[in-house]
């Protein structure tokens, strides 16, 4: 039996009530509809897999179709929904997490990043803690990501050579010298320890299903929290993928899992890596925590929202709640700003609007107010709350919009904890379940269409002329894909785009010598503030440029090179060129769908670690950033073009199956 045959997914029919209890809960008719559609896809795929369509499923596009089927099947069979507590470091996630549960599950930071691993919490009969170690595949992927953070491009080299390279690494500053990203000393130290952990505890990392180990519940913080400080202690803990907890709590619905995740944007890149990976693969919904006085609309928070949008199909309604924490740190200018500036409420409304989060999903919280409330039978008077919040005699600021008054009243009541607990206990699970059903319906519609097309392609007889044209078209696509890697300079549009982006971004950064002279005269503190403005402006400008004629240029050049091939119908398209034009429109509308792999100007703030720059240094640094970001953007565009060409090639391969010969 071939490897592919051994890896075939399950095609047995699902029973809505037995196999999909969450889906059936409160929506039996919907469950019958969705499961029935999936079972029909399974029947057709099984016939393909065990008949003349097997070769098609072994090809790249066939494997992708099977992966989509497995994803939808798993979506319908979920035993629970997972909602993450996300946010920047020191946003107060862990503290509020404990308050909501009325239990001490996570240790709060107290001024430093604390949470090191996803802590998955569900309701159970007793208090249990299970350690889940990485599989071999997960270890290799984590190693690749950690190596990438310190500019090591190949993590598959022999371990002895990798150790030698890592021990020779020196920290660098982004944009200086070779123009590469900063290599942080914390990342070098962590990578050394990670490799040492695998060498010393390799038996914990298994092929296939990850190894688990149960430990006493009161020892959980030794693994959940950061204990590694650069020595050899707790090395085995670096090989953990997550910690699974159960507690007998009435505040946890049985169908909901909560997961406390490491904060993003800290000095050690592994925290951000861990959280990003979990968001991509595990989350059904999220509570995004921000320190309302300092971290609203930061690059790290925007990145989390972008990841969630990609995972949730660009629709965060009913999936994501924004928790504006540490509200007790707000002051008069936040409520009543100077002319031309926004109040904190206007900023929040603008942020959720840009992020496609429902404004009714904004929550205000304050641990300080919660603690005050505990001294007054769990609730504060509006007068006391206003005093603690430095609001004088007006507990509801005049800039507070009506849409946020309910959430603000809950903040004044007890720090917003009651409101958040009610969300977790009653509302979030139901809301996420509705969104999961809607997402499953959308994915199933697309899956059914593509499975039906594959069945038609496999069973249809391809005329000799169409077959010859498909071969010619496939050869042309192979030449283009190879050229995008080996000879990108042969693509005039890519050369022009690179030059145009560099010119436009450089002129935005420093349009003339007068601006350059102004920057040269700035001190380090002023330059740090300017960097925040420049980085945001350049990022927005780059996205705008990629959303207009820039993407059209290179798509048109490749279309011209494909136009000499006679039309070949592929997939649901009448011709290859029709498919190519559809890809162009999609990538032009949403460059973030592929640009997410590209670094931004806000990556690795050079001032974050206390570095001091002169104006000349700043101009040199930002010029290098323009060069580096443009180079990486062109690389990302080339990768996306190769991916799109690969999609067409996969369809052509189906037409060229031997069994389809006339």
List keywords for this structure.
662 residues; alpha/beta; nine-stranded mixed beta sheet; globular; disordered N terminus
Task: Give a verbal description of the structure.
The model is unreliable at 1-6, 109-113, 175-179 and 228-233 (pLDDT under 50). Helix 7 crosses helix 19, helix 20 (464-486) runs antiparallel to helix 27 and helix 21 (492-509) packs antiparallel against helix 24. Strand 7 (285-291), helix 13 and strand 8 (320-325) form a beta-alpha-beta unit. This protein is of the alpha/beta class and 662 residues long. Strands 4-3-5-2-6-1-7-8-9 form a 9-stranded mixed β-sheet, sandwiched between helices. It is built from 27 helices and 9 strands.
Beta-strand proportion: 5-15%
Spatial strand arrangement across the major sheet: 4-3-5-2-6-1-7-8-9
- The total of helices stands at 27
- Any idea what the shape is? globular
What structural category do the secondary elements indicate? alpha/beta
Instruction: Give the end-to-end Cα distance, rounded to a whole number of Å.
Output: 29 Å
- Supply Rg: 27 Å
The overall average pLDDT, rounded, is 84
Tally of extended strands?
9
The share of residues in helices is 55-70%
Unreliable parts: 1-6, 109-113, 175-179, 228-233
Largest sheet: 9 strands, mixed
